[in-house]
């Protein structure tokens, strides 16, 4: 079977990473969670007092970019790669609501995007990759053979993220998660550099009322159809 590139974009908490991981496992492809990279840069900025509730020292972040080393390391017991920031496993820390509250500001910075996009393109150079994010089908891999754009109602998305965070023991309220989801949607889709938009050739899927199995079956069928005609 020929290896292809699969781009999965969409609004926050639409379950892009779940479907991307499932596809990668089934197809034996590499899975790349591009959001984890923006989250790790954000964590760095928080740890170095570059971003806080009152300040965002963009120039300092830009000049520190060369000191930020991001690496995905595959964890065979989990079945996916975890994010390392300067050789420290930050997989859990990057998923907090605090990081979510700052990440879209960091992701607006063109210099940050440039560095991460280059790394992402490098990871997909041999194809056989499923990457999820906001600009994968438009900027990172505009020539991807298959592009999906996933959406769901803001309430459904916030509920899913809320359940996830509560399950791992974080103390959050539904209201703050909903606010975060809506706020990030707004920044991500209105920013100047690489806004979240539906690529013209992307297949749009609203999974508000779909189970994980239904979603997987639908997408996997489309993927097999594509791989078989190439
Ligand atoms: O919370 P969710 O899993 O939906 O988001 P994520 O995929 O972890 O991405 C976190 C944030 O990183 C997004 O809200 C965007 O601001 C930014 N991002 C981006 O700008 N471009 C990407 N390719 C991926 C993420």
Structure characterization notes:
With 230 residues, this protein is an alpha/beta fold. It has one domain (5-218): 3-Layer(aba) Sandwich (Rossmann fold), CATH 3.40.50. Helix content is 48%, strand content 17%. It has nine helices and eight strands. It has helices at 16-27, 34-47, 58-64, 97-106, 110-123, 136-140, 154-167, 174-190, 212-229; strands at 5-10, 30-33, 70-75, 80-85, 88-89, 129-133, 146-151, 203-206. A five-stranded parallel β-sheet has the order 2-6-1-7-8. A three-stranded antiparallel β-sheet has the order 3-4-5, with helices on one face. β3 (70-75) and β4 form a beta hairpin. α4 runs parallel beside α8 (174-190) and α7 crosses α8. Residues 12-13, 17, 34-35, 38-39, 103-104, 107, 133-136, 184, 188 line the site of cytidine-5'-diphosphate.
Could you list the spans in which at least 5 consecutive residues all have pLDDT below 50?
none
Q: Work out the number of β strands.
A: 8
Q: Given this structure, which CATH class is correct?
A: Alpha Beta
Number of helices: 9
Shape designation: globular
- Main sheet, how many strands, which sense, barrel? 5 strands, parallel
CATH topology: Rossmann fold
Number of domains: 1
Give the topology string: H per helix, E per strand: EHEHHEEEHHEHEHHEH
